[in-house]
Amino acid sequence: MRRTVGAEEGDKEEEEAEAQYHSKDFEWEELRAEVENDPSFCQHLLPFQPTSTSSSSSPQAQSDSDAWKRFHIRHSAGKFFKERRYLLKEFPELASCNENSKVLEVGCGNGSTVLPLLRGNENIIVYACDCSTETVERVKEIIDASNIISIKQRFHPFYCDLSINRFPTWLACNQCRDIYLQSQHKSISDVTMNNIMDSNNLYLLRESGCCNGGVDFITLIFTLSAIPLQTMPVSIKECFSVLKPGGLLLFRDYGLYDMTMLRFELEKRVGFREYMRSDGTRSYFFCLDTVRDLFVGAGFTELELEYCCIKSVNRRNGKSMRRVWVHGKFQKPL
């Protein structure tokens, strides 16, 4: 049985030896039956009637991005997040990949994913983006503060809001990537796709076969749920476009009937299985069929897709927490 180390958004109190959890502490179907037969949860099951204020147009997407920027600025100090050290065990391909394998971390936040990747495999080169220039600068400072030259040399952060923008050209083209690396002395916010190559040149490069996928892995770790459901298909297709043929997209995100979903109040619903927190940040809760439709619809081949059902105990109040996440591996066909 697959095991996962640590618990996402679990206790944030200690830096002691990591606790281990089975990925099947309980059966998701049993949780589903319990939730769907409990009248107190009926508001989560009702169809959602959209209003003019719940659309996911470009202004709404920009509003979502601004909310996450404020969120990361507010939590830029301290240990709000733990490092996701379980990733190399959940996705062993990252631990055994070839030398100079390139990983793109989408939505890097404070670096809780990139740090264990860089420390755990010296062969990995990590490109990491986020929708906040302040967050990107902060994670770069965290990496620089490690004082480990080999890690700093293998980490390349950049700004990109995937809910609004396309990836920069250099992710799929060696020549463009070299230009980007030469410009690392500039501010992160200055290194954008428009500084390197305009959209017409990008189109010509792709038509000529120059830009047909440049990274070996993409990690989408608790990122896709943070953007509006309507924009997810375009964002996933953009990931597909910069992944090498045969490359892997590694996915982990909130699952249907996770504890946090059931805690949302009715007025926080902004869509079916989609909620808005009081700080303006968004969260979607995935069922397996939705994930499958999104990724297969973008051209990926499904390799693994399952619920991770983990029971943990809150050390502060002793209450048991049933967490549900979706684990997935998808491949770009050769």
TrEMBL record:
UniProt-annotated stretches for the region Disordered: 1-23
MF GO annotations: RNA methyltransferase activity; S-adenosylmethionine-dependent methyltransferase activity
Keyword set, alphabetical order: Methyltransferase, Transferase
CDD domains referenced in this protein's UniProt entry, alphabetically: AdoMet_MTases
Keyword field contains Disulfide bond: no
InterPro entries: METTL2/6/8-like (IPR026113), SAM-dependent_MTases_sf (IPR029063)
Biased composition (Acidic residues): 8-18
Signal peptide: none
Top-rank taxon, per record: Eukaryota
Enzyme class: transferase
EC numbers for this chain: 2.1.1.-
Protein's GO biological process: methylation
Family indicated by similarity: Belongs to the methyltransferase superfamily. METL family.
Function: S-adenosyl-L-methionine-dependent methyltransferase.
Designated name of the protein: tRNA N(3)-methylcytidine methyltransferase
Species the sequence originates in: Ziziphus jujuba var. spinosa
